[in-house]
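In response to reviewer comment 3 from the previous cycle, which asked for concrete evidence that the modeling workflow produces usable outputs, we include below a single protein chain processed end to end. The sequence was submitted unchanged, and the resulting structure tokens are shown without manual editing.
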Amino acid sequence: MRKSFSSAFCPLLVFIAVCLFIISCSTHSVQHPVENKTFTADQENNKEIIKSFYQALNDTNWQKLKSLVSEDYRHYYARDTGFNSISWQGAERGFKAVRSAFADWRLTPVKIIAEGDYVSVLLIGGGTHTGSFAGIAATHKVAKAPAMTIHQLKDGKIIADWELLDTGAFMDQLKQ
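The workflow returned the following structure tokens.
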């Protein structure tokens, strides 16, 4: 009896083992690594676009900047209890105003993280206050401020970004 039970049981065990093997292989499809590589490649491409954006800002290359943003680009900035938004033309005017008051102004990315169509950048902005800014005459002080910006991209262009900056702490540096 024992011999017939094990001879009947062994093929059943082999069958179950083969079924489990097939099931486990089907959940780890060959397509997943390829999809992840494509997704990662898109994210890396988006990060490179954002790095180019900050380099162009630092170089005051307005033509390059315009080529990196979409026609309907929106820049959202924190204001009171929400966000206000401006077009690329408004953002460019703002960037130029900062640059005219801080001739050596630099935006230095500290950390860049990409997920899907979004790229988040933790950065430090700063420069020497050499011109009038927000009603404050040139102090020749170096002022710096950390900022966080989330950029959204579509078809290789920046379509929007959301910026958080502690403007109070920044302005305090100029007033001291």
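Residues 136 and 175 are 8 Å apart (CA to CA). We consider this sufficient to address the reviewer's concern, and the full set will be provided in the supplementary archive.
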